[in-house]
């Protein structure tokens, strides 16, 4: 039986493009995230930004929309206030990402932007002062826009070199401060988030699915090269692969549902199978052949992947789904809602047991250390007249999910961190709303970027602080919310 480690990293996770703002400050170049509009009144379940064609791209790039990610929650200028609040919550770690276009504004620049690097120097130094361990994602849903326009995104093998150069630059600069590195956010979500993950415009390629898998191959190669570089640079740092958990359950015990579910899930393991086991699995090669997908993979890349596997697996978990043979195909976007589960207004189901199951399955398959890199639920919170948010729904969600994680740990899963998404309210990745709030800390901006910017501690802030103080022992602490904040 395993226990939660004494030095377990209780933390939170954010991404640069959803928090920093300051999108043109100190030499930062435009990124893909900067052109994502907030569309008032849009269907909250419609993730319109994820599957992009050239016409939409031009319209978003040149249109007069509201672009919330350009200002985020002003983390770039206000990071000390946010870090202070996290320190007050006693968090041990903050997972955050580096903005690629802050370091290489066009992606293909000769030299990095020193002002961008200096920002992260300041940030990491302040986190160190506050005893908050940084967990850094190198690529989280934003790339220099120029790499989409000039090169066609990750479908182009040149992206390997540009990304490796960027990765090496940040590793070189920060390896003494940052131990844990996630190279690519949710590398398996390319079918749901092809534009954010790969920067591909679908009408610019002949065979969209092939282009996506080729682009993913380029990400595998870049990841292996960065891992090789990082291990030589500093053997104490850890470089990980990250999945968004999308493992499904069969809708019924009908053999066709069970088999489709099995085959679907195997293609979800594909990404970590390559990066942890170090080789392309036969089931994936068969899938490619059956779907007319021909990938360019060289012998030296095969060696590189074999010799530079990931040190840990990071997993984000939010919701779960089912598959039904009569309605679904191998397309990871086609699922059937589980009728036994409730969901929030964005259609994200609530199922803590799914976290127990996926972490246990990943452990059984890989036996490498794991972190929960994201877990949380979006709600429209109500700020009371006296600046409180009574978010018992959020407490319940995290309580049930932490209990599920503890169950997996008890049965052997080696999990060393739990990062709530997101410890303070930031812009939503999918819909660019501010009002889809995840935080334990309320941040007073609205969907159009107006507001006082003041921060207020929600009930969940006091709850999480006590969970951290008890190292996860006490999930039912009595909480008081008498602070001024
Ligand atoms: C994860 C992403 O998939 O989901 C985050 O890594 C994102 O960037 C999170 O914010 C929640 O999604 P959303 O659309 O509610 O912000």
Automatic annotation (TrEMBL):
<comment type="similarity">
    <text>Belongs to the glycosyl hydrolase 1 family.</text>
</comment>
<protein>
    <recommendedName>
        <fullName>Amygdalase</fullName>
    </recommendedName>
</protein>
<keyword id="KW-0326">Glycosidase</keyword>
<dbReference type="GO" id="GO:0016052">
    <property type="term" value="P:carbohydrate catabolic process"/>
</dbReference>
<dbReference type="InterPro" id="IPR017853">
    <property type="entry name" value="GH"/>
</dbReference>
<dbReference type="InterPro" id="IPR001360">
    <property type="entry name" value="Glyco_hydro_1"/>
</dbReference>
<dbReference type="Pfam" id="PF00232">
    <property type="entry name" value="Glyco_hydro_1"/>
</dbReference>
<dbReference type="GO" id="GO:0008422">
    <property type="term" value="F:beta-glucosidase activity"/>
</dbReference>
<dbReference type="InterPro" id="IPR033132">
    <property type="entry name" value="GH_1_N_CS"/>
</dbReference>
<dbReference type="GO" id="GO:0005829">
    <property type="term" value="C:cytosol"/>
</dbReference>
<keyword id="KW-0378">Hydrolase</keyword>
């Amino acid at each position: 039986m395993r226990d939660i480690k004494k030095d377990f990293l209780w933390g939170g996770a954010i991404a640069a493009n959803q928090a920093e703002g300051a999108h043109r400050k100190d030499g930062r170049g435009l990124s893909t995230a900067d052109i994502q509009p907030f569309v008032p009144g849009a269907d909250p379940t419609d993730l319109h930004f994820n599957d992009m064609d050239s016409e939409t791209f031009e319209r978003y790039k040149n249109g007069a929309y509201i672009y919330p990610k350009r200002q985020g929650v002003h983390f770039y200028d206000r990071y000390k206030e946010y870090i202070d609040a996290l320190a007050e919550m006693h968090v041990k770690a903050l997972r955050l990402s580096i903005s690629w276009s802050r370091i290489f504004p066009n992606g293909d620049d000769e030299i990095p932007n020193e002002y961008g690097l200096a920002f992260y120097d300041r940030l990491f130094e302040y986190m160190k002062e506050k005893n908050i361990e940084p967990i850094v994602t190198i690529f989280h849903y934003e790339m220099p826009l120029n790499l989409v326009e000039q090169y066609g995104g990750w479908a182009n093998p040149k992206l390997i070199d540009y990304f490796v150069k960027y990765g090496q630059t940040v590793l070189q600069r920060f390896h003494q401060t940052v131990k844990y590195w996630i190279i690519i956010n949710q590398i398996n979500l390319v079918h749901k988030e092809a534009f954010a993950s790969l920067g591909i415009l679908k009408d610019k390629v002949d065979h969209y699915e092939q282009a996506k898998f080729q682009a993913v191959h380029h990400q595998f190669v870049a990841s292996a090269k960065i891992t090789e570089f990082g291990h030589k640079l500093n053997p104490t740092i850890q470089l990980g692969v990250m999945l968004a958990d999308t493992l499904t359950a069969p809708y019924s015990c009908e053999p066709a549902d069970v088999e489709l579910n099995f085959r679907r899930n195997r293609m979800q393991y594909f990404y970590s199978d390559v990066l942890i086991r170090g080789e392309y699995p036969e089931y994936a090669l068969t899938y490619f052949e059956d779907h007319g997908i021909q990938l360019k993979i060289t012998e030296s890349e095969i060696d590189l992947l074999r010799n530079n596997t990931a040190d840990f697996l990071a997993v984000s978990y939010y919701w779960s789904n089912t598959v039904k043979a009569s309605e679904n195909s191998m397309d990871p976007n086609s699922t059937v809602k589980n009728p036994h589960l409730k969901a929030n207004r964005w259609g994200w189901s609530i199922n803590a047991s799914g976290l127990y199951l996926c972490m246990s399955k990943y452990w059984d398959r890989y036996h490498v250390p794991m972190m929960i890199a994201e877990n949380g639920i979006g709600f429209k919170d109500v700020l009371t007249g006296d600046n409180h948010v009574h978010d018992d729904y959020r407490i319940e969600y995290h309580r049930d999910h932490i209990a599920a994680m503890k169950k997996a740990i008890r049965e052997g899963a080696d999990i060393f961190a739990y990062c709530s998404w997101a410890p303070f309210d930031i812009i939503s990745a999918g819909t660019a709303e501010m009002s889809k709030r995840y935080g334990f800390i309320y941040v007073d901006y609205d969907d159009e970027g107006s507001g006082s910017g003041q921060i207020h501690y929600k009930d969940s802030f006091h709850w999480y602080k006590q969970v951290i103080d008890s190292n996860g022992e006490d999930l039912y602490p009595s909480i008081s919310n008498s602070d001024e904040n």
